Amino acid sequence: MLGRLARWLRVLGFDTTYGHGVSDASLVRLAGEEGRILLTRDRHLLRELRPAHALEIRQDEPLHQLRDTVTAFALAPPAELFTRCILCNTPLPPALEPATAQALLPPGVRGIPGPVRQCPTCGRVYWHGSHVRRMRAALERALPGWLGHE
Fold first, then answer.
1. What is the pLDDT of residues 77-110, one digit of tens each?
2. What backbone phi and psi angles, to 5 degrees, belong to 27?
3. Is residue 138 part of a domain?
4. Number of structural domains in the chain
5. Residue 25 falls within a domain, yes or no?
6. Is residue 62 a part of any domain in this protein?
7. How high is the pLDDT of residue 30?
8. N or C: which end of the chain has fewer CB within 10 A?
9. C-alpha distances in angstroms, 100 versus 95, 96, 109, 110, 122?
10. How sure is the predictor about 141, in pLDDT bands with cuts at 50, 70 and 90?
11. What is the pLDDT of residues 64-81, one digit of tens each?
């Protein structure tokens, strides 16, 4: 239900697991064992299983969900965006050496400025293309002034 919210939280650098296909009881148990806050749209889960730390997500739009989460927990803005893999949550290592990076990039974006990182777990490659500008703009619309001047 909240996969897109999980990706936005990872863009911001928050350690975010996403438990689709996991039973409600397992989610609550894992959240407790790992000291996590459980974000859910499932009122039944909240009412019946009463997780220690949880937030009911009421919005449908992922960026509105993100805004509500940031507000509810008074989350501080990250020092840097894009420090975790948005697919698997692995922290991204420092930027690759230019020669290595260029070989991994699609031909149309080779030579663009900025760091290139590769997830050591799933292999996804990250670079600062036009998608990054669009994502920053979306974050600024959802959380005006929160990011400051990174």
1. 999 999 999 999 999 999 999 999 999 999 989 8
2. -60, -45
3. no
4. 1
5. yes
6. yes
7. 93
8. C
9. 10, 6, 14, 11, 17
10. very high
11. 999 999 999 999 999 999
pLDDT above 70 for 150: no
Residue 119 and residue 88 in contact, taking contact as beta carbons nearer than 8 Å: yes
Q: How far apart are CA 78 and CA 83, in angstroms?
A: 10
Q: Is residue 94 part of a domain?
A: no
Report the 3 state secondary structure along the chain: CCHHHHHHHHHCCCCCCCCCCCCHHHHHHHHHHHCCCEEECCHHHHHHHCCCCEEECCCCCHHHHHHHHHHHCCCCCCCCCCCECCCCCCECCCCCCHHHHHHHCCHHHCCCCCCEEECCCCCCEEECCHHHHHHHHHHHHHCCCCCCCC
